[in-house]
Amino acid sequence: MLNRVELGTALANGSVAATKIIESQSQYRNCHIKVPDLDRPVAAILVDGEFYSFFKAVKEAEKVIAIAAKLGNSGDMTVITKTPKAYIIWVKEPEGSSTLVS
Q1: Which pLDDT score, from 0 to 100, does residue 23 have?
Q2: Residue 54 to residues 31, 45, 81, 102: CA-CA distances in angstroms?
Q3: Phi/psi-derived region of residue 69, left when phi > 0, alpha when psi is between -120 and 50, beta in every other case
Q4: By C-alpha distance, which of 98, 45, 52, 58 is closest to 78?
């Protein structure tokens, strides 16, 4: 199981710009967002007032760490959530906007 200590140890070389590990569903809200480069809304989460779009579901913790490191090296900020079947990687969308009409 991936936890903060494992991720921090595995990524101690600073290769990831910023990866948050969300341990409870109460820490985020599921939603859909619009992003400038896509025509359709995408699955996303809202964390601390920022949108993160769905990137990939991965079963193995080691693969999650490798993918987060690769995204971090590209300058992407990520969030990792855990479901009963997989770890979910989400990528920050600074230009994302809610699909809800207020």
Answers
A1: 85
A2: 10, 8, 10, 23
A3: alpha
A4: 52
Domain boundaries, the chain: 19-98
Per-residue pLDDT band at 71 (split at 50, 70, 90) = very high
Which position has the higher pLDDT, 89 or 72?
A: 89
Chain center to CA of 92: 7
Mean pLDDT of the chain: 84
CATH C-level class of 19-98? alpha beta
If DSSP codes are grouped into helix, strand and coil, which group holds residue 69?
A: helix
Q: Nearest Cα to 10, choosing from 67, 55, 76?
A: 67
